[in-house]
Amino acid sequence: TVSETHTFKPRTYPVRRARVMGLASCFRPRDMSDDTPTKKRKTGSTLEANRGIFTADENAMIDKLLGCGQGHLFSSWPAPGTDDDDKRRFLAQAAVCDAGYPGGIAQYVANAKKLLQDSKEGVNPFDGWTPAVPDGIVVEYASKEHVELESEGMREVGSAAFVLVAGGLGERLGYSGIKVELPCERSTDSCYLQLYIQSILALQQRSAGEMPAHRSAKDVGIPLAIMTSDDTHAKTLDLLERNDYFGAKKEQVTLVKQEKVPCLTNNDAHLALKDTDPYALQTKPHGHGDVHALLHTSGLLDRWTAAGKKWVVFFQDTNSLVFRVVPGALGVSKQKGFVFNSLCVPRKAKEAIGAITELTHTDGRKMTVNVEYNQLDPLLRATINKDGDVNNDKGVSPFPGNINQLIVSLEEYKTQLAKTGGQIEEFVNPKYKDASKTAFKSPTRLECMMQDYPKSLDASACVGFTVFDNWVGYSPVKNSPADGVGKFKGGNPTHTATSGEMEFYGCAAKVLELAGAEMAAPVDFAANDIVVPSGPKVVLHPSFACTFEELKGKAGKGVKVTSASSALIVEGAGVKIESLELDGALVIKACPGAFVTVKGLKVSNKGWRFEKCGADAPEIDRLRGFVIEKDETEELVFDQPGAYAVP
User: Fold this and answer.
1) Beta bridge mates, 360
2) Fewer CB within a 10 Å sphere, N or C end of the chain?
3) What is the value of pTM for the model shown?
4) Would you state the torsion angle of the CA atoms of residues 479, 480, 481, 483, taken in this order, to the nearest 10 degrees?
């Protein structure tokens, strides 16, 4: 039995030839049989003198490195008796890198040489490919179609497993912790991981027992796998254990840790040593595409299949709105038979976000994949539209924006990964010192992206997309306050903690409004030198409602929030608000089994103030640029099961 919190590492797979896709970034592993046998390679008497202090495995690791042209790594090694422990430490690190990459370090170097050569020569990765708008659905939230899709998705969600990609620290945000520990809003201080797990538990509670197909949701639960990294693994585990897994069963949550890959110093794919340590390889993350290999090698896909799961839903670490659209998108996957469904948002032409595109090659091959925005426009100009990426009559590009929230069909996914070992097409992005492209400004590495999985699929695979508006499905927090100012001045979304919090409140308020509630109009709110709309601060706990239809049956007509400064927090599946007039702050919390009907309630108090904070404020507040002063709050807490009427 595998411990749920142990780290899984990709196993080494035999070298496989990748199916040629016609893209320069799609590697074909080089045949290593032409290499000179490693035992015949010589790098100097000092290294040979050291051989006697190493084990057979350590010497084999040296041979592997010499065999792929890495003799420079040993050029400064002293004689035996000096730094021997450091030499062993180096070989141990190299062995980890070797085991963590399909085909080992030799294959990594071979792939790197090919990709670096293509980069130097300026190979066009889209030569021979013609773009078109792929199959997909644009869903208007709260429409009749959306309600039907949500209903379809809720019949499937008990058969889903979720995967959170959480390998990053919050450094880019100006946050010293892991991103999933960052509060998504300060009204309740729920962190992202708490929000996600409670959303999964709410879906689980509603799906379990509805029909025989959902037996797995009741007996096994809806599982969550979290991909971590060296930087985040221990902190993620600690966050879960300190908070009793936020209500989930421990066995429901599995952490899988990705390893880093070696950095490269030149076009010959020489591995880089750390500047401060000649016995340590410089390594960097390989990219979130590693999640596919980790799921394959961990055995999770087999376990999920045995538990009756049919879908795998991937989501990112700081998008607080994603679970608003998961049921509807899952309904699209079921209805359209998609084996791979990209959740998307409308994108303006030339907007800096990747676009889902169908590509057809001159030889007849087809694939539906993400194309980066800076590649899409020239591709369109060179093929089907001399004007490039332009808006349609609805004011958006016909190519939807990819947000890296993905839904795959487990059966086909598992079969495909068994063929590939979870390998995802790689790319390299060296920063050259000059136009000769012979030297790098700093070491580079190979990378892979989770959304490139469809490049490995056959042309017959049913791949598509689902588009929801940004307000309801996409509000990432990925920029620091300083970077947000630059985005704001350029007229672009800031994607900061400031905007993320206000958009979280705004989404819940708009959903209530669509359900029939009267909500005060937003006003401009300035913090950290950006201005964002700020309406009523509404937090609807995941336990309250999972779908629009469910929410509409619990709140809507009869709810009136008269001021933009008001705050409304609702938690509990048993809460129903028939009529409420609010000017101030109201918190309603009902435990499981408590059924609360609010009818004819009027609340008027001093409420909460969102006040700017200075540079001396705690880190979490500085990220937002404000603090919440809770002057007066009406709290209705029902901590015992039963039926209650308010007032």
Assistant:
1) 130, 366
2) N
3) 0.90
4) -70
